[in-house]
Structures are given as structure tokens and as C-alpha cells.
């Protein structure tokens, strides 16, 4: 059996959590492969709303195993809070959530370093989520990291050594902090974490593949990928399909379908280039109707028209086999819909993603008629208005991949499989 992958094709917050939840009944295992609590994956069903950060979005469908893979970075304090909130709402997890021994730990000092580094960057800050993601992955690659498996072997000594190193680094910044307070919370998290099944998830997943199907859940989006995103305004992991191989221990030959998720428009949170960004009423309308405020930090998301230069690029990098279009309903009231089909760079048009999109990029926009219909009530594609079908066909032609799923509202039920 194969591993199917679900990942974001834009700058994150495409609606990955919702789609993972909807597709989970088709799988035996759901596994997160990268990122950490910088993610905020929102699910809505039965009049309840849940935001997941480190826990996979398959957790609400009964009888499925969920795995936090080796590619994830885990903050025990935030993990404990997330687990307890779920337990309180009637969703105990200990028997169906497994954690990789090789997942790296976000230490309290990683969080402090994230904040100190951002502060020192001033106007050129990345606008991180402040969860310690960059410093934790830096330690992983620098071979200084601590992993979940270390909690059971001489942990105190390893922790003290790592923290001492970080305190020396923090001394280089003009940054005040109170470590003791966050440490207490962090160690309480460690105790909670230890009550879970901590496993060699690469073995577990590969053995399960003999008879079972696995869904790999990505976090962030391909334009935030450390190699192919809008560097340096990116996150610190491989958010692309290849990240599912390294982040779970799956051979490339085992990858099946790659579901690429995008919004009918585009958003980004944090700093960095965004060629189709709107600063006018249209952008504000997308923000208001789409409730475009960060699920982790509450920051207003920047909004703009769909960017097909970026999407063509991320479809290519990921080998997307099925597209999923989210938040179609947010554009219901627009008279016309615009789409960026190329970039004009100093008078020259290109359809390929350039090395740098920071300056002198003018989006070449085409206009399509809006559908002016309430999409949220749609039950099947037979009900789609003609203009909406035209938008779908236009995107499929531009991107060369079929749109297999259309989402018309935040609720689990507002999903149309084509
Ligand atoms: P993720 O990080 O990719 O899982 O996405 P987020 O959860 O951060 O952001 C997506 C937001 O859009 C959430 O608030 C969802 O509840 C909401 N959402 C998902 N699909 C739709 C949709 O089709 N229409 C509308 N209006 N909202 C949606
Ligand atoms: P989900 O999984 C949107 C952005 C931050 C910042 C940059 C680096 O919900 O789609 P980091 O804290 O990772 O070092 O921040 O990446 N970012 C996200 N933007 N959705 C996310 O996750 C994000 N995770 C990180 O805003 O610009
Ligand atoms: Mg999100």
C-alpha cells in the first residue's frame, strides 16, 4: 500500500486540517511529517471548532492511529495543553496517538532564542510564530538537538548542557527573559508526553503499509519550504512532498497520491514577498469573509488574488496528482475574480518562478466573471454555477492537474468530492 500526502501549495493556512479530517476515513494511519506548533489546523464539525498544532488532524475520526513523525519538532508544554484541551472535550488520545522517538524537542531556550533573534532583526524580521521552530531545527541540523527518545536516557544532563549553550547565545542579545517560569511548565509537559506510546515510527509505518493505508499530513505551505520557498522568509523545514519521506522514513517509491491544497485566492501571514497582495477593499473583503486571522498568533493574514506562477511551481516541486480548492465561498460576492498568470519583471513576462520575488514583480492578472452565488449550501458539483465551473476549468488548464475536491465552507460537511 501507498502513503498519500496532503500538503499546502501556498504560504500555509490553506485548510489542510479540514481536508485531512475529511479524508481520514479512507486511511488507517494519519501521520504529521514536519513543522511543529507553528501550525494551526482548524477543524469544524457538529457545531464544534478545534485548532490542532502538533497533533495530526485524523484524531477525530474513530479507530485510526495518529502519529507525530520524526520530522516534527515538539514542545512538551504546548503538547500537554493541546492534549488536555482535547481530553476535556471528550477526546482521549493516549491509545491512538503515537510519537516518534526521533522527533526533536523544542526546549524553553529555543523559544527564547526565536524571540531574541527576531527582536534583533528589527524591520527585517521574519515574523515567526515565536514557537522556537528555527532554533530547534538549527540544533537538529547542527547535531546539537535533543530528541523525544533522549527523555529516557540521562536527560537531565543533556538538558543542562543544551540549555547552558543557549544561555551563552542569549547573552549576545539585548533580551530579557525569565527561564524558570517556562521551564516548570515545560517539565510538566515532559511528564505528560511520557505517558504516550513513544515508538520507532519509521518501523511502525513501514510495517503497517503491508496491509494498511497511510495519510501524511503536512504543515505550513510549499512557499514556506526551507529550500524552495520565498527564502529567507520561510519556515525551517521541508514542507514539500519530499519532507514526507524524510519526516516519516518512507521511501519515495511508496508515495501514492499527492493532494495539493490551495485557496481560491491567496494569503500569507508574517513578513516576506507576496506578489499578488491586495491593499484595497477586495483584500479586506477576503479577510473579513474568509476570517483571515492567524489561528496561532491571531495576526491578520495578508490577502491577495490567486498566484498561478507560484502554484505551477509548487505543483511541479511536489508532483501533485490531485488538487483541492478551498474557501471558494469567500469569493461568492465578487463581481469579477482575478488570477495572476505571469509576472512582469522589468518589462519582461515570465511564467516561471524567479530566484527572488522581493522586488520589481508586477503580477499579470486575467479577469474572470464571478459566480455571485451562495456556494456554502452546495451539495454536489451538479449545482455549481457556470461561472464557477469556468473558474475550475481555467485553473485545471493552467495547472495541468484535476481539482478533485472543492471546499465551500469551514464545516466537515461543506466538502464536495468530484
Ligand atoms: P491549515 O493550517 O491549512 O489547516 O488552515 P487553517 O485552519 O489555519 O486555516 C483555514 C481556515 O479556513 C480555518 O479557519 C478553516 O475553518 C477555514 N476553512 C476551511 N475550509 C473553508 C472553506 O471552504 N470556506 C471557508 N469559508 N472557510 C474554510
Ligand atoms: P499552518 O500549518 C501560515 C510562517 C510564519 C512566518 C514564517 C516562519 O497552519 O499552515 P516559523 O514560526 O515557522 O519560524 O515562522 O512561517 N508560518 C506559517 N504561516 N501557516 C502556518 O502553518 C505557518 N507556520 C509558520 O508566519 O512568516
Ligand atoms: Mg493554519
Structural class: alpha/beta
**Multimerization state:** single chain
Mean pLDDT: 97
Distance between the termini: 23 Å
Rg calc: 21 Å
**Number of β-strand runs:** 20
Work out the strand percent: 15-25%
Low-confidence stretches: none
Number of helices: 11
Q: Strand arrangement, largest sheet? A: 9-7-5-2-10-1-11-15-19-20
Fraction of residues in H or I helices: 25-40%
Q: Give the cofactors and ligands.
A: guanosine-5'-diphosphate, 6-O-phosphoryl inosine monophosphate, magnesium ion
Q: Characterize the biggest β-sheet.
A: 10 strands, mixed
How are the SSEs placed, and which strands pair?
Layout: E1 3-8, H1 16-23, E2 29-32, E3 41-45, E4 48-52, E5 65-68, E6 73-74, H2 76-88, E7 97-100, E8 104-105, H3 108-121, H4 133-141, H5 155-170, H6 179-193, E9 197-199, H7 201-208, E10 214-221, H8 242-248, E11 255-263, E12 266-268, H9 281-289, E13 302-304, E14 306-307, H10 308-318, E15 322-326, E16 336-345, E17 348-350, E18 361-369, H11 386-399, E19 403-407, E20 415-417
Parallel strand pairs: 1-10, 1-11, 2-5, 2-10, 5-7, 6-8, 7-9, 11-15, 14-16, 15-19
Antiparallel strand pairs: 3-4, 12-13, 16-17, 16-18, 19-20
Helix pairs in contact: 2-6, 3-4, 3-5
The chain binds guanosine-5'-diphosphate (GDP), 6-O-phosphoryl inosine monophosphate (IMO) and magnesium ion.
Guanosine-5'-diphosphate binds near residues 39, 40, 327 and 330.
